[in-house]
Amino acid sequence: MMTQNTTAEGNVSGATPPPGPRMVPPNPQLIEAFNWFNVAVVTAIMLAMGCTLKLRELIRVLKQPSQIDRRFFVGVAIGFLCQFIVLPLVGFGLAHALQYSSMTAMGALVVSCCPGGTTSNLLTFWNRGDVALSVTMTTVSTVLAMGMMPLNLWLYSRSWTQDVAVVPYKEIVVTLAMILIPVTVGMLIKYWFEKLAKVIVMIGSVIGLLGITTTFVLSVVINPAMFKVSWNVWVGALLLPIVGGVLGYGVSSAPFLRLSHPRRRAIALETGVQHVTLAVAIIQLTFAKKKQFLSELLVFPMLYAPFLVVLGLAVTGIFRLWLVATGQNKNPETGAGDKFADNPENTGNLEKNGVANIVAMEIDDEVHKNRS
């Protein structure tokens, strides 16, 4: 692994930032506990995510390709574009525009290159988005992150390789592979023990939200000086989820895509809501041997996490008020905004056919059970 002899005090634009607070080296025991805590939280979140996936329906779709909703996969493709092409570029641009130090920029880059997580799935549910699309995008992005994340980090981190150690991409890929194991276990639990899977989803969702909050609290305990960092870090941590969400919704709203509003919301939230716990775990596990850099690496994700929670709850509250104001809050099973689809004749019929296929599959299940 190649390193340079210079420090991480410079910034990406070559200028010297104003002097800030000295980062106190974290306590090794706290760092070790922080590592295991993040691994446990990520495992719980990924296990819960796996428990939301229906292996039986996936098998049936593979056996009967005619039931596939092609527009659904258009949504997945657009989500991939926003997640791995648009957002890393946004993070890279913010790091340059706000003149981050090298390690702060790397922390921001890791966050912007991460896939979405359970938090985006929860927010999609609360905002009546397409939960199936959200979970699918989360799963696909998590799998593709094994290749896209090292690629994006290699592509964009070259601005900082003169100042800091080259990122150990192989360790990141191994870490992501270890995270994918709970997803597979969760799918199997859902397949064999559906009632248990529902409990795991509820517990995992709570753990996910509490995990982000607890990570924020632990970061204060480990290094309270993070709140005295320069204003530009605060601005970037606030702008990244906002810009990501707006761009995600904007790209998915292109008229020729004819995606329904619930699917646009799912794409927007998946793009704007990054898996902070995963980002922290990757940083902790990957850079554990570079303790002198950890505090600065974690500054951006630790500020990003509370902004993410506040913004997510604010968007949900505003959306719920809008539902009440427009009288669309009566049927929680209907995705708000469906009637305003870009092309009601095509999109509406496609959605109805998709629902009909699901209903038909459920009827087939009941008939099969009765015959048994």
Automatic annotation (TrEMBL):
The gene is LOC109462817. GO terms for molecular function: bile acid:sodium symporter activity. Signal peptide: none annotated. It comes from Branchiostoma belcheri (Amphioxus). It holds the Pfam family SBF. The lineage of its organism: Eukaryota, Metazoa, Chordata, Cephalochordata, Leptocardii. GO terms for cellular component: membrane. Keywords: Membrane, Symport, Transmembrane, Transmembrane helix, Transport. This is Ileal sodium/bile acid cotransporter-like. The chain crosses the membrane at residues 33-51, 72-94, 100-119, 131-152, 172-193, 200-222, 234-254, 266-287, 299-323.
